[in-house]
Amino acid sequence: MRSLRALFSRLSTATETNLLPSSSPSHLHFSRSLFSSEQCLGDPAAEAAAHLESCADPEDLAQTHAHVLRAHLLRAPFHWNALMRCYLRLVRPRTSLLLYAQMSRSGTVPDCYTLPLALKAVALLFALPAGRQLHCTAVKLGLDKHEFTESGLISLYAKAGVFDWAMKVFDQNAQRKLGSWNAVISGLAQGGRLAEAVDMFVELRRSGLVPDDVTMVSVASACGGLGDLGMAQQVHKCLLQAGRSGRLDVMLSNSLVDMYAKCGRTDLAGKVFSRMASRDVSSWTAMIMGLAVHGEEVAALDFFRAMQQEGVRPNQVTFVGLLSACAHGGLVEEGINYLEAMAEKYSLEPTVAHYGCVVDMLGRVGRLVEARAVVERMPMEANVVIWGTLLGACEKHVNVEVGEWAARNLLELEPWNDGVYVVLSNIYAAAKKWGEVERIRRLMWERRVAKAPGYSSATVSA
Question: What span, in angstroms and rounded, lies between the C-alpha atoms of 151 and 159?
Answer without folding.
Answer: 12
